[in-house]
Amino acid sequence: DETEFRNFIVWLEDQKIRHYKIEDRGNLRNIHSDDWPKSFEKYMKDVNCPFKIQERQETVDWLLGLAVRLEYGDNADKYKDSTPDGAKNTDNMAKNAEPLINLDVNNPDFKAGVMALANLLQIQRHDDYLVMLKAIRILVQERLTQDAIAKATQSKEGLPVALEKHILGFDTGDAVLNEAAQILRLLHIEELRELQTKINEAIVAVQAIIADPKTDHRLGKVGR
């Protein structure tokens, strides 16, 4: 948009570049004048822009670079020690990702607290108190959060089962006994599935504990 482009050039000169004195910016500010392109061409020469008036994208990029250099020159002390926002966010994310990294694992109070929690939650003792703390964190997240407790206390509604569709595999000679045997077999299968789910959860919990950068399975030990 031509009007937006001209307003942009005027804003850069007024606010950042300030090559002209205020009283000398009249022609450049008169964005509706038919002579504005000539005023802009003269301005480019005055600021030593190496591009032609037709090369707008290159001209805009160059003028922005000039504005940034001038802004920095006016406020060098302010900007020289600043950190990009992206770097700050990365540092914060790294700190939040491992909240245990700055703990003093040799502190007696820390060891006593971890041991008390482990005993309360019936967690296996380990020589590395940090490993025990991670196990406690996993247990709390998986079992003791409000969502986990609410999910565990929810009553399960049974689904109707058509017994005639399930083959028992043997015949007791009594229809009532056959039906009871089918029910017992289905309940047993349900218990096996629940057991398998708990085994899978235990495997995931153990993997989360041992998935530590200091762990080297090839050496058969944990350490730095």
Descriptive notes:
By secondary structure, this protein is mostly helical. It has 3 domains: 2-81, no CATH class; 107-154, no CATH class; 165-211. It is 63% helix and 2% strand. It has helices spanning 2-17, 26-29, 36-46, 56-74, 76-79, 85-97, 108-121, 129-144, 146-153, 175-210, and strands at residues 215-216, 221-222. β1 and β2 (221-222) form a beta hairpin. α1 runs parallel beside α4 (56-74) and α8 (129-144) crosses α10 (175-210). The relative contact order is 0.05. Belongs to the RTRAF family. InterPro entries: RTRAF. It comes from Urocolius indicus.
Annotation keywords:
mainly alpha; 2 strands; 63% helix; 2% strand; 10 helices; 224 residues; two-stranded antiparallel ribbon; 3 domains
Quick recap of the structure?
This protein has 224 residues and is an all-alpha fold.
Question: What distance lies between the first and last C-alpha atoms, to the nearest angstrom?
Answer: 62 Å
**Unreliable residue stretches:** none
- Structural class comes to mainly alpha
The share of residues in helices is 55-70%
Beta percentage is: under 5%
Q: Write down the overall geometry.
A: elongated
Number of strands: 2
Rounded Rg: 37 Å
The residue-averaged pLDDT reads: 79
Our count of helices gives 10
Strand order in the largest sheet: 1-2
Biggest beta sheet attributes? 2 strands, antiparallel
Quaternary organization: single chain
Whole-number count of domains: 3
| Secondary-structure element string | HHHHHHHHHHEE
Protein name: RNA transcription, translation and transport factor protein
Family: Belongs to the RTRAF family.
Pfam families: RLL
